[in-house]
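[09:14] KT: can someone run the structure on this one? pasting the chain below
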Amino acid sequence: MLEWLFPTVSNPLGLAALIAVRITLNVILTVTVARAVGFRTVTTAVAGTATFLSGALVVLIFSSGEFGLYASYAEFTLQAIVIVLAGYVIVTSLSTPLSRLRRAAGAVALIGAILVLLSMIPLYGDAFVAP
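[09:31] RB: done, structure tokens below
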């Protein structure tokens, strides 16, 4: 069904679901950052840009298979930037009016993003190192 999008992957539906979860978690983290520090701040701009570039790059990496291992390193770094920024904002925003529910949702999204990031390591290895 999704072979046209990810032709080099043996389970394209599973990969598409994993990427969708990852992008959703990144958007939640970016919104958490924006609500905590403001929508027109450098931190929010960096988190938003990293979220967009990470999502676009992960789709391009697996759809064409031509970008290679170094592109996966760049994408991994962008994902780490989103996670570190969101973690920093969640931890340091304890004195801001960010509600407990939003902070808890951000923390859950942060943990989920870390787990999804760790699950991408074997996928990149299988796609670029193993063949």
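[09:33] KT: thanks! The longest helix spans residues 100-129.
[09:34] RB: yep, looked fine to me
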